[in-house]
Every structure is written in structure tokens, then in C-alpha cells.
Amino acid sequence: MSFLSVAMLKLRPPAAALLLAFAVVPSATAQSVTEWSAETRTTLSFQLNDAVAQRVLPPGWTVAPSTAAANRGGNLNLVLIERQLVLDGRGTVIRSGTSRYVVLAIPARNAAGESNTIIVGGLSPEGSGAYDAYVTAIVARVERTATGLGEEAGQATEHWEFAAASGERIELRLSYRRAAPVKSHIESRVRSAKHPEFTRTYRVDQAGDVLRSAASPDRVTDLMFAATGAALTALFDGSERLLSVTSVPWYVREISVP
Fold it and tell me: Average pLDDT of 213-233?
């Protein structure tokens, strides 16, 4: 058993949860683990005009909207991420070991029938990232508070803010009533829109709490979302529709190549 497998076993809580919009793939037996991380996430699933989403996909790939009840028709996931611990394949802390960034991902399918998640954009203080897709963020900030009594699930508020020198900016203010999250284990393959031949495999254990969707009670009490700047308004042109909001209080991921 590798160091990373041992670390995952030690850190695994008693519950995990829902992962939206990643295509399931078979387990690989001979892959090189390159990264392990423990994170907290919030995911917004949007429905764009398919033609708008298609414009940012690489040749040979077409939009494959979600068929899940929670976000049926969703074709863009915006994932806000706070990484508490990031290790390389040898178990060494990468950079400071923590970071905050936001990712834009589209579910897509190619002519061969492969269904993958395509990373099409985002903002990160670490620059363009492994997928060569992110704008460098000069602001990457999150504030989070939670309250509760006894065995109550409690309430939480989040404020995420990302900004780039080139004018791109994403902000989310969110308040909600919490509930018990749902456990899930997912294996998926993720590609870069700029370099679709580049593939990474994710193995994820997580706990997800769907706060708003067509298939569940709405526990969001306040929400403000804004996306501005040239790299973002091409997608967020005012016609997008927010389908679901999911809080992921813990997310443990192992990445391997391919």
C-alpha cells in the first residue's frame, strides 16, 4: 500500500457524498499517482445554451448535458475549491500545501463515445495549472462561518471571491441550512480544453450536501453570484440558468496519469 493510500485511510471520515458531472471510468491498475489532496468545495451547476458551451470545447468533442435528477440539463459546473492539504506522489507537501481556486468544467463526449469532464477555464493563484486553463488570480479568498446547537445540522455562510489583473472576477455569497451529507466514491477522467490529449484520472471520496435542486428541498436562504471579465462573460452572458448548489464539506482526491 502506498503512502497516499495510507494517508487516505487515515483521513477518511465516516461519511462522504455526491459528485456532480464527472464521468465514471473503470479503475486502473498501473498508473502513476501524481497528487493527493484534501479539500472543501462548493459547486454551482448551470444550464447554458448548448451553442455557448460548445464554443469552448476542443474539436471532436460535443456537450453532454447532465441527466441526473438534481441538475438535469446542466452543461457547466463552476467549482469553488479550498485545498487544506496537497501532496505529491511521494507524500511531500506541494508549495504551501494549501490554495484556493475556481474551476469551470463542461461534461462532454467525443466521437468514440468517451464521456469526460473538460476543464475550460478558472482562476487560480498558481497560474494556468495542469490543464493550462486558468487565469492567474491576484485575489483568491474565502470566508466561511457555521453555527449549530447540540445535534442540529446548523447553518452556514460562505463568501468566495476571485479576481485577475486582466479583469476577470467571480464572487459568491451563500447562506444555507445544512443537512447530513451523502457518501460517494467516484472515479473519473478529466481533460484539458486546450490540450484534450492530456488526461488525468481522479479517484475521489467525498461528502456532498445538495442545498438547491429540482429534486430536493431548497435550503438556500441567500445567494448572490457574479462573473465578469472577458474570459467569463463568453459563458455567463445572462441567459444561463442556475440548476443546483452543492456544498462538499470534505473531498479527498487521488490523481494519477493518465
Answer: 96
Q: Nearest to residue 71, comparing CAs of 241, 232, 248?
A: 241
pLDDT in tens, 109-157: 999 999 999 999 999 999 999 999 999 999 999 999 999 999 999 999 9
What is the DSSP code (8-state) at residue 62?
A: E
Binning pLDDT at 50, 70 and 90, where does residue 27 land?
A: very low
Span 73-85, average pLDDT: 98
Specify if 34 maps to a domain: yes
In a domain, 100, yes or no: yes
Q: Give me the sign of the Cα torsion angle 53, 217, 141, 127.
A: negative
Positive or negative, the CA dihedral 38, 155, 145, 124 is positive
244 with 44: CB under 8 angstroms?
Answer: yes
Q: Is the pTM of this model over 0.85?
A: yes
Quick one: average pLDDT of 41-49? Answer: 98
82: in domain: yes
Nearest CA to 70 out of 47, 52, 53 is that of 47
Question: Strand 115-124 vs strand 182-192: parallel, antiparallel, or unpaired?
Answer: parallel
- The number of distinct structural domains making up the chain is 1
How would you label 157-183 residue by residue, b for 16+ Cβ within 10 Å and e otherwise?
ebebbbbbeeebbbbbebbbbbeebee
**Residue span of the structural domain in which 46 resides:** 3-139+185-217+235-257
Is residue 115 in some structural domain?
yes
